[in-house]
Amino acid sequence: MITIAILFIAGLWAYWNYLYSPISSRVSRLEQELSQKQSQLDTTRKAAQELSILMAELKSADIEANEIEKKLPKSEELPKLIRDITKTLEKNKITIQSFVPGESTGKIYFSEIPILLQVSGSYHNLANFLSDIGQYERVINTYDLVLAAKQSTKESPDSLTASLKLVVYMAK
Fold first, then answer.
1. pLDDT (tens digit, 9 = 90+) per residue, 109-143?
2. 101 and 138 share a domain?
3. In terms of domains, do 116 and 167 share one?
4. What Rg value do the Cα atoms of the chain yield, rounded?
5. Which of 20, 38, 137, 146 could be joined to 70 by an S-S link, Cβ 3.0–4.6 Å?
6. What domain range includes position 140?
7. How far is the C-alpha of 160 from the C-alpha of 13, rounded, in Å?
8. CB 81 within 8 A of CB 113
9. 141 phi and psi, to 5 degrees?
10. Could you say which of 37, 71, 105 is where a domain stops?
11. Are residues 65 and 90 part of one domain?
12. How far is CA 154 from CA 16, 40, 92, 125, 151, in A?
């Protein structure tokens, strides 16, 4: 009976030393690695969610930047702008007497390009022209509008002459 007890204790010691203890330490090490990997996975998932949010914000910012660039382009595009203004004048039946683009003046964030106009037409047509200019995608302001009445004749049915300055803005 003592021999069986000694063999049982020796078997238990061998089981503990050679089987249970190594497996137990390996399991605890693997559980620790698993918790670290789970933590990394959670961090990565959060980063992926933030990335998708940031990508959506970037796309929105790009769209907004494109809209702003249409209103305040970085290049002058003066020939196209002159054609557009001339077409708008013709569409509103306004006679151009003088069209003089001025020198660009630089500000901190933008440049201003003045265009001096002298035109003649009816009051209604001039108002429509100014309204159409205000509807352009590009920012254009009207300054120094001076109206003068004019005697209309059969050759020149225009009822007034106008002198004004259009200021076109360009981003730096």
1. 788 889 999 998 888 899 999 999 988 888 888 99
2. yes
3. yes
4. 40
5. 137
6. 78-171
7. 115
8. no
9. -110, 150
10. 71
11. no
12. 119, 86, 19, 18, 10
Q: What are phi and psi of 157, to 5 degrees?
A: -80, 0
Q: Which residues are registered as beta bridge partners of 171?
A: 110
> Which residue is it, tokens 């004749």?
153
What 17-24 contacts at long range (C-beta under 8 Å, 24+ apart), as own/partner pairs, is none
Determine if the pTM surpasses 0.70.
no
Q: Which of 67, 45, 127, 69 is nearest to 94 (CA)?
A: 127
| Cα dihedral 120/124/127/133 (nearest 10) | -80
pLDDT surpasses 90 at 32: yes
Token pair in block for residue 97: 């007497």
Q: Which residue's entry shows tokens 């969610």?
A: 49
Coil, helix or strand for 163? Answer: strand
